[in-house]
Design brief:
The complex is a heterodimer of chains A (322) and B (453). With 322 residues, chain A is α/β, with parallel strands linked by helices. Chain A has helices at 12-33, 35-38, 52-62, 85-93, 109-116, 143-148, 164-181, 186-211, 227-233, 251-263, 276-282, 304-320; strands at residues 2-4, 45-49, 66-70, 96-99, 128-130, 218-221, 236-240, 266-271, 289-292. A four-stranded parallel beta sheet of chain A has the order 3-2-4-5, sandwiched between helices. A four-stranded parallel beta sheet of chain A has the order 7-6-8-9, with helices on both faces. In chain A, helix 4 packs across helix 5 (109-116) and helix 8 packs parallel to helix 12. Chain B is mainly β and 453 residues long. Chain B has helices at residues 6-9, 49-65, 76-83, 100-104, 186-192; strands at 13-15, 86-98, 109-122, 127-135, 140-149, 157-165, 195-210, 213-228, 259-270, 274-284, 287-290, 297-300, 302-315, 320-339, 351-369, 374-385, 388-403, 408-424, 427-445. Chains A and B meet through strand 1, helix 1, helix 4 and helix 5 of A and strand 7, strand 8, strand 9, strand 10 and strand 15 of B.
Amino acid sequence: MTGSKTKGDLRPSIRRRSLLGGAFGLAVALSFGLPAEVAHARERVEVVCTIPDLAHLAKEIGGDAVRVTALTSGNEDFHAVRPRPRLLVALSRAELLLTVGLDLEHSWLPPLLQSASNEAIQPGRPGHVDVSSGIEALEVPCESEARAGGHLHMKGNPHYNLSPSRMRIASANVLGGLLAVRPESRSMFEERHRDFCRRLDAKIEEWTLRMAPARGAALIEDHKTWAYFADEFDLRIVGEIEPKPGADPSPRQLARLIELSVREEVRWVVCRPELEILARKITRGSEARVLALDAASRRDEKGGYIGFIDRIVEAFVGSAGT
Amino acid sequence: MPGRSVSHTSPCMTPILDRTPFAPRPSDRPIRLERISWKADPMPLNRFGYGLRLVLAALLLPALLGPLPAQSDLAGSERRSALAPDISVAGDLVFSWSDEEGRAAGADGFDLRAVEVGLYGSLDSRFDYTSVIHFSSEEVELEEAYIDARDWLPGRMTLRGGRFNLDFGKQNRIHDHDLLTIERPSVLQEYLGGSLRGTGLELQWWSPLSDDSVIRISAALVEGVEGDSHAVLGPAAGHEHGEDEDEEERPVRDFDDFSINLRAVASIDFADESTLQLGGSYLLAPENVFGLDEDDERELDRGVAGLDLTYTRLDESTRRGIFLQGEWLIGDRDFGELDDNGTPGDDLDDSFLVTNARSQGYHALAEWRASRDWAFGVSGSSYEHAEDSDEDSWDLGAHVTWNASESHQLRLGIRKYADLAQEEEGVETTSDFVAVQLQWTMVFGRHVHGVDW
């Protein structure tokens, strides 16, 4: 459509001011008026965790006094979580945020936190707890490695959730976070924490015994994930499927991994379920077994965190006949 | 009837837009962007002028205000380290091949489309800063430099100040190397000049509608709105950065000359994998120009409205899923022309004509993410020309993307262009051709994307 008009007819500046005023008015009105904003029970502590493992710890310690939301379901690539509305809503309502730290969430959590506009859980606030505090990180790249690039995590491997003894330290940080936001529930939180640690210590003893025959056994992992588990149970990691983070191996690299698998008498090739077919190629000609495992528990993990490690240990022990 | 070539071929009609900073530069080259009213030069470093002063003012403002007492909770060393920016570098290399008509349209050879350096960080717990500097073979351009003030205004409002891509539609804030297609959709090139950018303030607000849905509204008041494109192919391609341009005379800027951009978007999650977004955007970008003489100031309206719909379904464990997106745009803009009524030497019978043109167009994209490494997509645009809705163009293409690693991506695309408008020495022609493009994108360092509103 093409037509003519006289300039004086439209009075664009008035229209523009009306538009601007209308938009701001609507925003202000909605700020105070939306029903979703009104009622959110604050009797229970709103805890948001970046991975389900932390959510299980929070439930163990907080009991009925907490309402826990895990932002991820446990089988994602934690480096590339899609920031989406439900995550934003959860963060906006949280009183306590528990993060894995060590840069695991660095690509997606900061923009969500920025948009959530929840002062209580911003870094530096008592409601923002980096659960890695006090845990000595493994695989911290040295300066030359860092310069060579390819490392996702300059602060070290963030997958300490695969080490039950380190998660014992993490549970103390979770307790600290809960006490900071609900000091009046101190005795209850501390009692539940002691109980969890007692049960965890007993299970660590049991898992160590079950894994003892496999001490010194070699494994290949898909991605730098299993260092803490290997450290906990004295296993050897001899290679990674991914030559660089996120990259599939070339045929030549695959051939090297097959050769490595035979030479090092690799007992397990551990990978995410979606890489199982690739992992099976590496086990050709060797006794290695493929373990397709997620590196974190599920939201609905039976038995919570302890149940998750039970499942992992059972997978290792069962597959290798140890 | 304003035709795109009339203003360049008629000796008695002077294109009034040539007298504004938004106007195309005089050049022997084919400048297809002349039809796009807010397509302007990106600012070379030595010509930041008023825009840069505003950016610097925006950057300095938070520092002058200083941290509010409630936020000074970070230890000194933490705050110092927080000031150190995260740095990312992105490179975007495109190789294009086409038949004869396509080569005439510029589809031939390599284009180092961009090397982009991004700096991101926090001044403190309430202020974040972002700056993006674009290096190409022809210029260095400050693409974006802004401060986000959060947890500072009531409710869930945030304030952005500086120079930034406007919150218009789904793709305007996405830089070229992050697009899902090699070229920005043609309809966006035609109506927005690529991506819209301005200097000023933007207020954003969002609220939950339920546990799984949110609404967000933004309103921006900006000056110097310009469309910026690094397209190799499409209606905004061929824009040569860094050419000398004489400062055009124009009336002194006043409040009425500022632009307003509005956007509202609702996002709904269906389970963990699926999200549906419905958005609407409106930009009103008037410009004050001289009419018959310097005592005769006129205001020309330029507006674009858009509706967008996006559906994402992605299994985050396998990275398999689908992505569907469509945008529909309506352009509405004034054109001013000086008519000497057939007597070039006699100013007394001159008249200043303002005409209005409306046009519309859309684009659609469907992509199948087959794995974390591979994606296959089809996309197309169809649009009436911004200055003359009697003419239209379309294109349709397919692409395959291979994420070779977290840092490298290769994309192969093929696209059929129909009636793509080009201008050579003031004469407009259209061409039909098929182009094949290969894009290699490299991203290093921390490259953080915000919430996908």
